[in-house]
Amino acid sequence: MNRFRPGGVWGFILRRLLLGIAVLILVSILVFLATQALPGDPARAILGRSATPASLAALRRQLHLDRPVIDQYLTWVTGLLHGSLGRSLAAQEPVTTLLSPRLVNSSVLVALAALVSIPLSIAIGAWAALKRENAFDTMSTNLLLVLAALPEFVVAVVLVLLFATTVLNVLPAISTVPPGSRPWNNWTALVLPTATLVIAVAPYVARIMRASMIEVLESDYVEMARLKGLPERTVLVRHALPNALGPVFQVIALNLAYLAGGIIVIEYVFNYAGIGSAMQEAVINHDLPVVQALAMLIAAVYVILNLLADVATILVTPRLRTRL
Amino acid sequence: MSQVTGVAVPGAEMALPPVRGTSLLRRSLRLWRTRIGVTLVGFIVLVAIVGPYFAPYGPSTPVGVPNSGPSGKAVLGTDYLGQDVLSRLLYGGRSILVMAVIATAIGLITGAAIGLVAAYSRNALDDTLMRGMDVIMALPQIMLALVAVAIVGPHAWVIVAAIALTTAPRIARVARGAAQPIVERDFIACSEAMGVPRWRIISGEVLPNTLGPLMVEASLRLTYSIGVIAALAFLGLSTNPNGANWGTMIQENQLVLAIQPWGAAAPIIAIALLTMGTGLIGDGIARTAAGIDRAQAAE
């Protein structure tokens, strides 16, 4: 750890913020180069082989492909910063109009999954650590190991098989959100997508919580607290839990960021109108402005969540605060 | 250890490092979870590789009424086009497996090289390399693969390259973390003083000491690679849109789950057994490696 630099918590936050911005600038270059400046003609990729020269030229002008690469990049980034993401080629409307309702839908889904999975997995992990090596610990550890290995679309289709078709037919198999309506208007449709996301995230968080809690329970300061004669409850709630949560925040952030990618597949399974299924449609339709906007959006979510996790870890872990 | 790499005989320097890797695997086989994992993976790999020779029909041969249930003619029933589900299952694993293994191997080799060089350099190169890795990691794997496929098209090499590119930074991070304490040790300084070339210190001295964490991460990454490649096919982006592919099969038959569940359930079971197997093997290696490291610390 060579973090003995001046500035305290605010200096640390500022450094992380600058680093995050630098990463986003590099990501924007990467996304831009990948989608617009790659060898091959994006206009032809979009319109297909049967395109006429006239329509190709028109599309090139619309995408600003006739100008120097640096120019194109600056125009695109300036647009991004002003919230103007271009026009969707497939839907023929501004990308922001297309994506904002879907962004709300996806946020509802991810927030719901986070609300369920974070307390649940922390509780499972902490409980398994407290009851180490007993039946609950062995069972939950092995079950989580197996669940963690399953790809999320496999989990999703298995849930549909179990709860929406053959075994029990109690929940809808697809979760369409009609335009104009809100996802919470039809909450039964949210159950299976949320459950899939929870199963995709909870194993990792529970696993790291268990490991972290075991380490803390074996530490000197917990033993000290016990020897002082503090009630076990106080030892756990005031001394063990806060220190054990530190590493867990990192994993939660990583997993929420992972969800930003995971929703692509899960929303597709359930036909849920969010940014994930928008990404799938945009890729199938070669809708490059939408692909670019979503790539930047998901990368920004990742960077922000990581930043929040770093700050939260520092604030919640008493022994790291003094090291700044 | 250091005198081993001092010898110029190629076989001699190879003699020591691989023992630790294979012995780690052998020791991990004492755990039941590893044995179960190896059995599952072995079974699915066998099905995927020799399956096509045992398939009763071709992968695209219509054999009966669409969506009919299991019968004597079609053991697992027929799919939405009336093709034999069992035959498609036997044909459909090979491409996923081959692509996942190649992509993970490329990601493992480049990622380990980047991570080890970064840890060994201990200077600005370290920062530059790892910040570069951060940039790639800011894009979720499936997202980068989707962008690549959207631009270049659903070719096998595009998918393999995208998976390898997104696997490398995650491996690099683990390799660097594992190598950092090693490069500070005396035997590294000793080799440097003896004038052993840098690449040989990295490959002969640092690499063998990071094999444990690397193997654990590699098995985890293989699990993810299988998942992402199957998911791409599931999203309608396989290399062959009408080909037999477990991901494609799940997508095609998902809508008729209520009528003929086997069309989607069979490939789902295959993918689930495979990724559970690689997950169990990874966990077995992780537990064994942790045990070995603990024993060494106690010595």
Describe this structure in words.
The complex is a heterodimer of chains A (324) and B (299). Chain A has 13 helices and no strands. With 324 residues, chain A is an all-alpha fold. The longest helix of chain A is centred in the C-terminal third of the chain and has 39 residues, at 232-270. Chain A starts with 7 loop residues before the first helix and ends with a helix. The relative contact order of chain A is 0.14. The model of chain A has no long low-confidence stretch (mean pLDDT 78). Chain B is elongated and about 75 Å long. In chain B, α5 (94-121) packs antiparallel against α6 (124-137) and α7 (141-152) packs antiparallel against α8 (156-183). Chain B has helices at 2-6, 10-28, 32-54, 85-91, 94-121, 124-137, 141-152, 156-183, 186-194, 198-206, 211-234, 246-253, 262-298. Residues 1-19 and 293-299 of chain B have low confidence and may be disordered. Chain B starts with a helix and ends with a helix. Chain B has 299 residues and is mainly alpha-helical. Chain B is built from 13 helices and no strands. Chains A and B meet through α1, α6, α7, α10 and α11 of A and α6, α7, α11 and α13 of B.
Write the layout of secondary structure elements.
The complex is a heterodimer of chains A (324) and B (299).
Chain A: H1 8-37, H2 42-47, H3 53-62, H4 69-81, H5 95-130, H6 135-149, H7 152-165, H8 188-217, H9 220-227, H10 232-270, H11 275-284, H12 288-316, H13 318-321
Helix pairs in contact in A: 1-4, 1-12, 5-6, 5-8, 5-10, 6-8, 7-8, 7-10, 8-10, 9-10, 10-11, 10-12, 11-12
Chain B: H1 2-6, H2 10-28, H3 32-54, H4 85-91, H5 94-121, H6 124-137, H7 141-152, H8 156-183, H9 186-194, H10 198-206, H11 211-234, H12 246-253, H13 262-298
Helix pairs in contact in B: 2-13, 3-4, 3-13, 5-6, 5-8, 5-11, 6-8, 7-8, 8-11, 9-10, 11-12, 11-13, 12-13
